[in-house]
DNA sequence: ATGAAAGCGCTAACAT
DNA sequence: ATGTTAGCGCTTTCAT
């Protein structure tokens, strides 16, 4: 595997007594080559430690078997899971994965897109924190194939993989409202300018119906924020059936409630969102709305690959995943 | 940034009234080009939306500005942190990062190395779970530049970035033994066949000196394992100064001790290892030995780049990071 | 300071 | 089934 310089199809061809075309065919379209010839060539290739040069193929074909993945960060269990799944799936499909961490900095993001373009990447999967219009326009410049993993506005000019957060919110709320004597809900949310937060709230509103809803909005959706809100809930008359729009909040809220003297699930029920590792690390296992992170990554790679295969006839599609409620002790079944 | 086909140096050159050589120089060695010419060429490049083709450059130069990163998984805060830092650093140095997830499967790993070789990657950073000899031999086949992030045996034929786990173990033990009346320690470890575990124990042994040490060995170093051991410690006469060789264990041990009626840090002190997010997510903030994950990633990229720069004269070096103790409430200062 | 020209290794259309 | 050949777009040496 030494990638020896000067060792190309030509030398393999010479050693095998054929021409480069036949060697190229053994690699890319084996069916066009006679079995015996093929075997001889393969033998020579191993013999010489031949490693095909993808740069040459890319130059010739105009496109590399490379998929770019642009994420705001990896140190975040959700992105880590998506990244891992994209990496695995890309690898299995014979694509290299070019990982780009943007830290949500437009300048960095732009540099990454330029790099992907220079490499003639076959496509890019982007997990934007905020899929603003300007941003997307920029993204589209990369070239042909672009898949977004996120909630995308109606005007999507790309394929996308999204989670139905409205359904997720509804799922959580319905679960909490499932007990006959539950008349009201508390929701602990992040800023409503974040589409996911708005959607989860919308789903909740669908479910509350005639019931009432007390809303808390936190700044950073962190464990700390959750603790603070949990204490407030314990001290106030807020409903003790609490839907937190992420697991960090749920984790914190449970602690805050506890500090306020309330036991979960005896005195209060809590549902989280995301089904992160965190959900099962605390003293009480958290019921949570699970997003199919691995499937999302796989679907994204699938979109790119079929977009490539489709060619001209491609029509953009959006894969919508419906989240699933994982019931644990923080909010047991009714 | 449209990466339009057929648009290369040639067309830019024509439009600017120069030859390809001058355009190439404007990109790669601007100082060789007259200011006025350079500006004109730059203008034409933006005008035409020219995106240089790296595949061509790679083909010509024989090596790509690509660094491979091979990790067993990303869904693991330690690898996630290292990966993120490698990604950022590589990006800043103008390298693309080819991320490979091996799931510790030798076959998959091998495929990844082949891919990196085919792409003529400038180097690879490998975070092997087990740096067995066979494995390393295989790795070395990738080509020229290889950096390991891990504890490496003496016989290292590559650059490496390691953490001094003996020092780390000693750090933890010294801290626990810092209180005048502490005569003995408990260590909760993983399998001693794992070098890191063995080293952390070795460091502990350096510190215990005449004190005595009670050892627990767990199967998977998980939170669950920790809980079980924590209960055992509470019920037994094991020393209540406990060093856990990772944060998961520490997290679990604290819970187990608690279930056994012991308060941390009042009745028992616990030190973890790794300084993961987990360390600060529990009810009690965990004192932990921190590995400089980001610096490690940065150092690894640095090794590759200087190895490239050094050329022939390169001598392999190992960067050893000494971990640092982050004191929190689970084991306050004496 | 700029130009001319020879490939790097591969693919694919065309010919045999 | 296999051979011939023309580039893909770039870097770099050697001239000018």
TrEMBL record, chains A, B:
One family name in Pfam for this protein: Peripla_BP_3
SMART domains, per the entry: HTH_LACI (SM00354)
Keyword Transcription regulation listed: yes
GO function term, MF aspect, one: DNA binding
Keywords: DNA-binding, Transcription, Transcription regulation
Ranges of residues in domain HTH lacI-type: 7-61
Organism name: Microbacterium insulae
Name of this protein: LacI family DNA-binding transcriptional regulator
């Amino acid at each position: 595997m030494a990638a020896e310089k000067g060792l190309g199809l030509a030398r393999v061809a010479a050693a095998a007594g054929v021409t480069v075309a036949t060697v190229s065919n053994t690699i890319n379209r084996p069916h066009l080559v006679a079995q015996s010839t093929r075997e001889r060539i393969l033998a020579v290739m191993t013999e010489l430690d031949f490693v095909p040069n993808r740069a040459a193929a890319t130059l010739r074909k105009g496109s590399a078997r490379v998929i770019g993945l642009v994420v705001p960060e990896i140190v975040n269990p959700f992105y880590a899971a998506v990244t891992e799944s994209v990496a695995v799936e890309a690898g299995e499909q014979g694509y290299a994965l070019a990982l780009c961490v943007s830290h949500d900095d437009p300048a960095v993001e732009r540099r990454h897109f330029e790099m992907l373009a220079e490499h003639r990447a076959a496509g890019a999967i982007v997990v934007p924190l905020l899929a603003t219009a300007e941003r997307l326009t920029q993204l589209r410049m990369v070239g042909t194939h672009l898949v977004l993993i996120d909630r995308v506005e109606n005007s999507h000019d790309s394929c996308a993989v999204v989670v139905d957060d409205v359904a997720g919110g509804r799922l959580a709320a319905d679960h909490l409202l499932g007990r006959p004597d539950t008349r009201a809900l508390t929701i602990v949310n992040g800023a409503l300018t974040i589409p996911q937060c708005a959607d989860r709230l919308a789903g909740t509103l669908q479910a509350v119906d005639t019931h009432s809803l007390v809303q808390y909005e936190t700044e950073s959706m962190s464990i700390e924020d959750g603790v603070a809100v949990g204490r407030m809930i314990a001290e106030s008359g807020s409903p003790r059936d609490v839907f937190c729009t992420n697991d960090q909040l749920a984790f914190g809220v449970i602690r805050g409630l506890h500090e306020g003297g309330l036991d979960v699930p005896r005195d209060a029920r809590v549902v989280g969102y995301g089904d992160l590792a965190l959900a099962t690390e605390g003293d009480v296992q958290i019921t949570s709305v699970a997003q199919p992170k691995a499937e999302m990554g796989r679907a994204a790679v699938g979109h790119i690959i079929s977009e490539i295969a489709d060619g001209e006839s491609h029509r953009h599609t959006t894969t919508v995943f419906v989240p699933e409620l994982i019931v644990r002790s923080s909010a047991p079944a009714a």
